[in-house]
Design a protein that fits this description.
Layout: E1 6-12, H1 19-27, E2 34-40, H2 46-50, E3 56-60, H3 66-76, E4 81-84, H4 97-104, E5 110-114, H5 128-143, E6 155-158, H6 159-162, H7 174-184, E7 189-193, H8 205-227
Parallel strand pairs: 1-2, 1-4, 2-3, 5-7
Antiparallel strand pairs: 4-6, 5-6
Helix pairs in contact: 5-7, 5-8
Length: 229
């Protein structure tokens, strides 16, 4: 098994309560060569927490969006394999090892995390079902492949896939855009069951607004990709 250089990227925005444990979990994975935290203009004490850890950090002066942060890592860093995880996983971030192994062993070209079934209860997630359905239908429209995990931010890629990422939207459409482009270029993938947990948006007004923004960003991404064909 030829590992090469493995970079794990964690885009964060106001994750003061979770990012420390997320880093601790990643530190347990010996396969990882570099952990890069991209602080996407956090206004809480996330930056102070990051100072306590031996990790690479890119700090953005203002919030640019998850996709913008990921694009910066893709273009500016050196790696043979690149993975992305969310900042609110806590110590379950160590499960990223399950995503790394199939890629570095050449079983597949990229992997996406499949969360436990109990974690996808739409009754607690403020409209997540509609967002997930849009993402699934969008990926199928462009690739004719049915994927249940196209929204998952936990994934690992071979470097060569990044050369085909011609469109990386700044915000919530990023995972859908990357999934579609990877599949359109013939790369193989695997949905990998993991025991990860993270914060879910509730059914409050704030939660529905968040899901509304996510839905709109994904829809815009799908429309833009249609006209870029």
């Amino acid at each position: 098994m030829n590992n090469g250089r493995i970079l794990i990227v964690v885009p964060v925005y106001n994750e003061v309560d979770k990012i420390g444990d997320t880093i601790k979990g990643l530190k347990k994975v010996k396969l990882i060569d570099e952990i890069l935290i991209i602080d996407d203009g956090s206004t809480d004490d996330t930056a102070k927490v990051l100072e306590k850890f031996d990790v690479s950090i890119i700090s953005l002066s203002k919030n640019k969006g998850k996709g913008y942060a990921m694009r910066k890592a893709i273009k500016d860093k050196e790696y043979d394999f690149i993975g992305f995880v969310d900042g609110d996983l806590g110590e379950t971030s160590k499960e990223v090892e399950k995503l790394i192994k199939p890629v570095i062993s050449n079983e597949v070209d990229f992997t996406i995390a499949k969360f436990p079934q109990s974690s996808s209860n739409t009754k607690t997630k403020g409209g997540f079902g509609l967002v997930k359905k849009l993402a699934k239908k969008g990926v199928y429209f462009y690739t004719k492949k049915e994927i249940n995990t196209s929204l998952s931010g936990q994934r690992v890629y071979k470097k060569e896939i990044m050369k085909h990422m011609k469109y990386i939207p700044n915000r919530y459409g990023i995972e859908v855009a990357m999934t579609i482009q990877a599949l359109q270029n013939g790369f193989t993938f695997k949905e990998v069951p993991v025991n990860m947990t993270h914060r879910y948006t509730d059914r409050s007004l704030k939660g529905f607004k968040h899901r509304g923004k996510q839905f709109w960003d994904i829809l815009k991404t799908l429309i833009v990709m249609f006209f870029r064909r």
